[in-house]
Structures are given as structure tokens and as C-alpha cells.
Design goal:
The chain contains 9 helices and 8 strands. It has helices at about 55-60, 65, 95-110, 125-135, 160-165, 165-175, 185-195, 215-225, 240-255; strands spanning about 1-10, 15-25, 45, 75, 120-125, 145, 200-210, 230-235. The longest helix is centred in the middle third of the chain and has 16 residues, at about 95-110. The protein is an alpha/beta fold. The chain is globular.
């Protein structure tokens, strides 16, 4: 696998951006692969949380090692602290990721598939919110996964006051009294997509039972299931911490339709 740092210019944001990409390549790790195996490659967009950036998944998890025997690309962009949202202060991070980024990928990495059934998205915490939001807002992704996601459908979501003050949240989402029912409300977006009678993404969510977002996930996932989505919802002992996300990213790889090949393990 090749690990690439890609510096590019975003016309949508009017600024230079960085994404990290894990790209399968012919190597001694995969002697049976041919050039044909590396065409129309499935891709997983992997989103960071509030304290992270485009490099945090490779720094704090085993993702690069885990996928080295599986022909799948991993694209890790950054949204800074903008919650994968078109902010109230004029920075359209959502548009930059949902519209512009796939165009950049298609230009720079033509071997990565453009097909919906080979495009997937996942994230942790704020990135779990972003993954579901982007999957519900488009027909781009066939699978979406959340780890300890802040699955916001209510302006009084857990941790809001501890993470940032009201001025910050209003800069991101606008008037919080109008959050419910808006384009940033996960439940509203899930409802809108289900009403369109288009193919629905398959969903996966994991949340630790000691996580402060546990009840938020239970409530939101139950509402999404009621809308007819195929949801795999799992819980186990765990907190809002990289120790658990490092373990659960492999669970997502197993769940995705990518013929994930595990490394050899003796224990």
C-alpha cells in the first residue's frame, strides 16, 4: 500500500487543503495481484472527529496495516472544526467534501471507482455525524458507518456545552432553536431520503456503553431503523476513546463488501 499526502486547492473553500490517501499497489505483500485488480477500486472515505485532521486515522489506528492485503482505497479529508457543514460564516465545507472532493479523486486517482456500490463512508464522533449526513444527503455512498457518532437530531445534543460555547455552535449551525428539521438534522435528512424512494445506504453504528453519546445513539438509531433503513447497530463496553476506535475500524472493514483479507494472526 502507498500512503500519500495530497495537497490541493479547493475552489469551494478558496484555500489550500490536504487529504491523506491509502492506495493499493503491486507489491510483495500481494504477489497474486495484477494490474487488473487495481482498476475500479472500492473506496472508503474516512472522517475525523473534532480534535483530529486528515492524518489522525493513520497516526492513532492500524488502518494502513489492516488494509494492506485488500484492494481498497482509503481517502481521509479534513473539515477542521466545521462539522461537515456549510457554516454560517460562509465556509462551505459540506459542498467541498460532497461535491468537490470526489471530482478531485476522479482526476488524481482514475483507478478509484466512481460507482455508488463501491463508494463507502465512515467516521468517528463528529465524523460519524458527517458520514451519516453525507450518506443521507446524496446518492454517492452505498454504505455508511459511525463509531461513537454524535448523531445529532436535537440542538441540545450531549456534550454540546462541554465541547464549545454557543457562539461556536451558532457559527456552525445557525440559530439552534431552528436546528430540528434543518439540513443539519440527521433524522430529517434520513426521512427525506427515505421519502424519495431511492436506494438507501446500508448503515453500521457502534457505541460504547460508557460513552456519553450512548443514549443519543440508541435514540437516533431507533428512529432511523423505523424509516426502513438496513442498520447494524452494535454496543459493547467502551468509552469515547481511540483504543476502541482502533478495534472497531476492523469491524467496519469486515462489514463492508470489499472482500477484506485479514492479516495472518497466531493469537
Amino acid at each position: 500500500m502507498a500512503l500519500l499526502q495530497v495537497n490541493y486547492y479547493s475552489q469551494t473553500l478558496g484555500m489550500d487543503r490536504v487529504m491523506n490517501v491509502i492506495l493499493p499497489e503491486l507489491s510483495d505483500h500481494n504477489p497474486s495481484w495484477t494490474a487488473a485488480d487495481l482498476q475500479d477500486i472500492p473506496v472508503l472515505y474516512l472522517l475525523h472527529g473534532m480534535s483530529g485532521d486528515q492524518a489522525v486515522w493513520t497516526r492513532r489506528t492500524s488502518i494502513e496495516r489492516l488494509v494492506r492485503q485488500t484492494p481498497v482505497a482509503i481517502v481521509m479529508p479534513s473539515t477542521d472544526l466545521a462539522w461537515y457543514t456549510n457554516t454560517q460564516y460562509g465556509m462551505n465545507y459540506f459542498d467541498a467534501l460532497i461535491d468537490e472532493l470526489p471530482q478531485k479523486i476522479a482526476t488524481l486517482f482514475p483507478q478509484i471507482s466512481k460507482k455508488r456500490d463501491k463508494n463507502f463512508i465512515a467516521g468517528l464522533s463528529m465524523g460519524g455525524y458527517g458520514a451519516f449526513k453525507m450518506a443521507f444527503s446524496s446518492q454517492q455512498f452505498s454504505y455508511a458507518a459511525s463509531l461513537s457518532g454524535a448523531l445529532i437530531g436535537d440542538p441540545n445534543f450531549p456534550g454540546r456545552d462541554a465541547w464549545q460555547n454557543d457562539a461556536y455552535w451558532q457559527g456552525i449551525f445557525g440559530n439552534l432553536t431552528k436546528f430540528s428539521g434543518s439540513d443539519n438534522d440527521i433524522i430529517t435528512l434520513a426521512q427525506q431520503q427515505s421519502f424519495r424512494k431511492q436506494p438507501l445506504p446500508k448503515l453500521y453504528a457502534w457505541i460504547g456503553e460508557q460513552d456519553f453519546l450512548f443514549e443519543n445513539n440508541q435514540h437516533t438509531i431507533s428512529q432511523i431503523k423505523a424509516l426502513g433503513y438496513d442498520v447494524t447497530f452494535e454496543t459493547s463496553p467502551g468509552e469515547h476513546d481511540w483504543y476502541y476506535w482502533d478495534k472497531k475500524i476492523e469491524r467496519i472493514l469486515e462489514w463492508l463488501p470489499i472482500n477484506y483479507k485479514k492479516e495472518k494472526r497466531l493469537s
